[in-house]
Write a structure and sequence with these properties.
Number of domains: 6
Distance between the termini: 69 Å
CATH class of the largest domain: Alpha Beta
Helix content: 55-70%
Strand content: 5-15%
Number of helices: 35
Strand order of the largest sheet: 1-3-4-5-2-6
C-alpha cells in the first residue's frame, strides 16, 4: 500500500467511536460498486481532522492493501502541492517535470482500477468557490477545469472530505454527511485527564465541569488549556480563574474573524481565550517563539518548512522555540518532514492580536521580507524547494495594504513567483503576477530601469504564449527601444528582446521581417554570447521556424539539425529544448516528403513530451498536431483524424476555443475529413475556422488565407464552382500581396484557381494563367 498522511497520530483517541463506525459504514471500502464520497462536517476546533486521521490509521492497520492519501484544500497551491506529493509517491512518469499537469496525471492514474484500493482524504474542503469555479484562461476561453474536476473516480477508491461548511459537505458528498459536534462531557473529561502530566492538578469535579463547559467541549481548546497547565504546573481551578478574569472586549476583538463566532453567543470564545492565556506566557519567556508564531500567522497555514522561518541566533534557540509552540498545541509537526502546520483558528487569533496592537501591516511586511529573501529564483534543479515555498509566497503577496517600505521585497518576490507560474504553464496567473510587478517597478524605479524592462519583457512573453500577439508586440517593441537606449544594442537582455520580437512577427505571419530580425539577432548572439550559448540556440531555433514558414525547407532542415546536435550535447535527449529541436526538424523533413523519417521522430517526440511535460502541456499538443499531419500526408487518414480530434479537444480545454493553435487544429481536422470524402462536415469546420481566423488573426494573416483556400477547395469538391472560384481569386490576390508572387502558397492558389476554371469549362483563361506562371 501507499501511505501519504502528513500528520503523526495522537497517543490516544478519545471517544468518537460511534462516529468512526458510521464513517466506515458510509465509506464501505469492501464495496467495489462505486466510488464512495463521504464528508465530515462541523465547527472549527471540533476535531474533524483528528477523526479523519484516526480513520486513516485504522484503515492502514485493518486493510493493508488500501492506499491512503491526504490533500490539503486550504488553497489552490496547497491542493496542487499535495497532489504532486501523491504523484511522486506513486512514481507517475512525468510528475517531476516543470510544466507537468500534475492534477491530470494523478487523476488519470488513480482512476485506473489496476492501481488497487485507495482512500483519498481532502482536508479543509471549505471554500466552494475555490473548489468548483472554472478559471477562465482568457476572455474568449471556456476556462480550465475546477479543482473538483481533478478528483479521481474508480470503484476501487473512496474520497473523504472534512469541512466547516455544511453547504460544501452536501455538495461534495450528498447524503453521506457526518455531522461532528462538540465532545460529550465524559469524553472531554477523559481528554483533559489524558492531556495532563500531573493528574492531581484536575481538582474538584464541579470545577473541571465548569471549565470544560466554558471550553465548549472543543478538543483544540481543551488541548491548549492542558498545555498551559502543564507548562505552569497550576491547578485546573487556577486556570479557570485566569479564563474568567480576561476582558470581554479583548476576547471579542480576538474573535472578530472566527467563522464559528455565532456558536459562542453565551460564552467567551474558548479558542481565542485559551490562545490569549497561553500566548501571554510565551511572549514573556520566549521572544523567538513569539516571532515564529507571528510569521506563521502571515503565511499559508499548512506545510510551513523550517527553512522558511526567520534565522535564529543558535540552533538550540530555534529548536526550543519550535518545541514551545508544539507544546502549547499552536503548531503541529508533519510526520517525517521538517515542516509544520498552524491551526486555522490559532492563525486568526494571532492576526487579530497584531491588529489590536496596530502591528498587522508590519507583521505581514516582516514575513514578506523573509519569504522574498529565502525564495530561490526558480530553476528546474531547485524545483522541490520553490514548489514548497510557493503557497507561502502567494499567500503573503495576497495582503493588500503594504506600505511603501515593503515595495522592494514585494517586487522581487512577484518576479520570482511569476516565473514559477510561467515555468508551470500557468500563463494567466503569470500574467496577473507580472502586471503587478510591472506596476511597482514603474512607480518605484521608473520606466527605464533595467528591472522594469525585464518585467515588461516577461509580460510580453506571457501574452505571446496566450496567443495575444498584437498586445505582446506593442510591449515588446517598446521594451526593445528602451533596452537599446538604456543597456545598449548588444546587451544580452537586448538580444533576448530582439528574439522575442522576431517570434511575435512570425506568429503574425510577417515571415520575411521575422527572418531578417532572427538573422540579425543570431549574428549578435554568436559575437556576444558564443555559438553554444542558450540564447544563441534560441535564435537558431527561431530562424529555422521563420525559414520553414517561408517554405525554405532545405535551409530550415540544416539549421534545425545543427540546433538539435548542440542542444542534445548540451542538455541531454529529454530536455524540453532538445524536444523542441527534434519536433522542428521533423516538420522540415515532412515538408520535403520524407514522411517515414518525420513520423518516427514525431512519435519519439510525442512520447518524450508526455513523459517530460505531461500529456496536456501545449508543447505536447503541438507534437500530437504535427504527428497527425504527417500521418495524413501518408494517407493514414483514420489515425490522423482520431489524433486531430483529440488534439482539438485538448487545445480547446487547455488554450481556449479561439487560441491560434486551436484554430490550426480545426483546420487540420477539416483537411483530413475532406481527404476521406466527408465534404459537408469539412466545409462546416472550414467556415468556422475562417471566421475565427479573421477575428483573431486578421483577414490578411497567412493562416486566414490558408483557411480561405482550403474552404474553396472543399466547395469545388462539392461542385460549388462559382463560390469556389470567387474565393480562390480573393485568396490569390491576398497571397500575392502578403506573401509575394513566387511564394509556394501563392503558386498553390494559382493551381487551385486553374483547376476550378477548368471544371467550369473556362479553358482559355485557365490556359493563360498556366502559361503566365509556368504551371504544368
Amino acid at each position: 500500500m501507499h501511505w501519504l498522511v502528513p500528520f503523526g497520530r495522537n497517543k490516544q483517541f478519545i471517544g468518537r467511536d460511534s462516529l468512526l463506525q458510521e464513517l466506515f459504514a458510509k465509506l464501505n471500502l469492501e464495496d467495489l460498486e462505486d466510488c464512495q464520497r463521504v464528508a465530515i462536517a462541523g465547527l472549527g476546533g471540533v476535531g474533524k481532522t483528528q477523526i479523519a486521521l484516526e480513520a486513516a490509521f485504522r484503515i492502514k492497520n485493518a486493510t493493508p492493501d488500501c492506499s491512503v492519501f491526504w490533500i490539503s484544500a486550504t488553497s489552490t497551491t496547497s491542493f496542487e502541492n499535495s497532489v504532486r506529493d501523491i504523484g511522486q509517491a506513486l512514481q507517475i512518469p512525468g510528475i517531476n517535470e516543470d510544466k507537468a499537469d500534475v492534477k491530470s496525471l494523478v487523476k488519470r492514474f488513480l482512476s485506473q482500477e489496476s492501481v488497487g484500493r485507495w482512500l483519498l482524504i481532502i482536508d479543509n474542503a471549505d471554500d466552494i468557490d475555490m473548489l468548483y469555479t472554472r478559471v477562465n484562461e482568457s476572455s474568449e476561453s471556456s476556462g480550465s477545469p475546477a479543482l473538483v474536476d481533478y478528483l479521481p473516480f474508480s470503484r476501487m477508491g473512496s474520497i473523504l472530505f472534512t469541512t466547516r461548511n455544511q453547504e460544501a459537505a452536501v455538495k461534495q458528498a450528498g447524503l453521506n454527511v457526518i455531522m461532528v459536534k462538540e465532545m460529550s462531557e465524559g469524553d472531554s473529561q477523559k481528554l483533559l485527564e489524558t492531556s495532563l502530566i500531573n493528574k492531581s492538578l484536575i481538582g474538584g469535579k464541579d470545577t473541571t465541569a465548569k471549565l470544560l463547559e466554558n471550553l465548549a467541549h472543543l478538543p483544540l481548546a481543551i488541548k491548549q488549556a492542558a498545555a498551559y497547565i502543564n507548562q505552569k504546573m497550576i491547578s485546573v481551578s487556577d486556570y479557570l480563574g485566569l479564563y474568567e478574569a480576561d476582558g470581554e472586549e479583548l476576547i471579542h476583538l480576538l474573535s472578530t474573524e472566527f467563522e464559528d463566532q455565532g456558536r459562542y453567543r453565551d460564552v467567551k470564545n474558548p479558542i481565542a481565550l485559551t490562545w490569549l492565556i497561553s500566548f501571554r506566557q510565551i511572549s514573556s519567556h520566549d521572544p523567538l517563539a513569539e516571532e515564529y508564531l507571528c510569521f506563521m500567522s502571515c503565511v499559508a497555514q499548512q506545510d510551513i518548512p523550517r527553512s522558511l522561518l526567520p534565522a535564529a541566533t543558535t540552533k538550540r534557540k530555534e529548536l526550543e522555540a519550535i518545541g514551545t509552540l508544539k507544546a502549547y498545541a499552536f503548531i503541529s509537526e508533519r510526520e517525517g518532514q521538517d515542516s509544520y502546520d498552524i491551526h486555522r483558528l490559532v492563525q486568526i487569533a494571532m492576526r487579530n492580536w497584531l491588529k489590536t496592537r496596530g502591528e498587522l501591516n508590519s507583521g505581514f511586511g516582516k514575513a514578506l521580507i523573509q519569504v522574498a529573501k529565502v525564495f530561490p529564483y526558480p530553476r528546474h534543479r531547485n524545483k522541490a524547494t520553490w514548489t514548497t515555498y510557493l503557497p507561502h509566497a502567494y499567500y503573503v503577496l495576497s495582503f493588500q495594504v503594504y506600505s511603501g517600505d515593503f515595495e522592494e521585497p514585494q517586487r522581487k518576490l512577484l518576479s520570482k513567483l511569476g516565473e514559477c507560474f510561467y515555468m508551470s504553464g500557468k500563463y494567466v496567473e503569470a500574467e496577473r503576477i507580472h502586471r503587478q510587478e510591472l506596476a511597482i517597478c514603474e512607480r518605484v524605479l521608473g520606466k527605464e530601469h533595467r528591472d522594469t524592462l525585464s518585467s515588461m519583457d516577461n509580460l510580453a512573453q506571457v501574452l505571446r504564449r496566450q496567443g495575444r500577439y498584437i498586445e505582446a508586440e506593442q510591449i515588446q517593441q517598446q521594451t526593445l527601444e528602451l533596452d537599446k537606449k538604456v543597456l545598449g544594442p548588444e546587451h544580452p537582455d537586448t538580444l533576448a528582446c530582439m528574439d522575442g520580437l522576431a517570434r511575435l512577427l512570425r506568429k503574425q505571419g510577417k515571415y520575411v521581417e521575422a527572418e531578417r530580425l532572427h538573422r540579425q539577432t543570431l549574428e549578435l548572439d554568436k559575437k556576444v554570447l558564443g555559438p553554444e550559448d542558450p540564447g544563441t540556440l534560441r535564435s537558431m531555433d527561431g530562424l529555422g521556424l521563420a525559414l520553414w514558414r517561408q517554405s525554405k525547407f532545405v535551409e530550415a532542415e540544416q539549421i534545425n539539425r545543427l540546433t538539435l546536435e548542440v542542444r542534445g550535447n548540451l542538455y541531454g535527449p529529454e530536455h524540453p529544448a532538445t524536444l523542441t529541436s527534434i519536433n522542428n526538424l521533423a516538420r522540415a523533413l515532412s515538408s520535403q516528403g520524407k514522411y517515414a523519417e518525420a513520423e518516427l521522430m514525431h512519435r519519439q517526440t510525442l512520447e518524450l513530451d508526455k513523459k517530460v511535460l505531461g500529456p496536456e502541456h501545449p508543447d505536447t499538443l503541438t507534437s500530437m498536431n504535427n504527428l497527425a499531419l504527417v500521418l495524413a500526408k501518408q494517407g493514414k487518414y483514420i489515425e490522423a483524424e482520431q489524433m486531430d480530434q483529440r488534439t482539438l479537444e485538448l487545445r480547446r480545454t487547455v488554450l481556449g476555443p479561439e487560441h491560434p493553435d486551436t484554430l490550426t487544429s480545426m483546420n487540420n481536422l477539416a483537411l483530413v475529413l475532406a481527404k476521406q470524402g466527408k465534404y459537408v462536415q469539412a466545409e462546416q469546420i472550414h467556415r468556422q475556422t475562417l471566421e475565427l481566423d479573421k477575428k483573431v488573426l486578421g483577414p490578411e494573416h497567412p493562416d486566414a488565407l490558408t483557411s480561405m483556400d482550403n474552404l474553396a477547395i472543399v466547395l469545388a469538391k462539392q461542385g460549388k464552382y462559382v463560390e469556389a472560384e470567387q474565393m480562390h481569386r480573393q485568396t490569390l490576390e491576398l497571397d500575392k500581396k502578403v506573401l509575394g508572387p513566387e511564394h509556394p502558397d501563392t503558386l498553390t492558389s494559382i493551381d487551385s484557381l486553374v483547376l476550378v476554371l477548368t471544371k467550369q469549362g473556362k479553358y482559355t483563361e485557365a490556359e493563360q494563367m498556366r502559361a503566365s506562371t509556368g504551371a504544368q
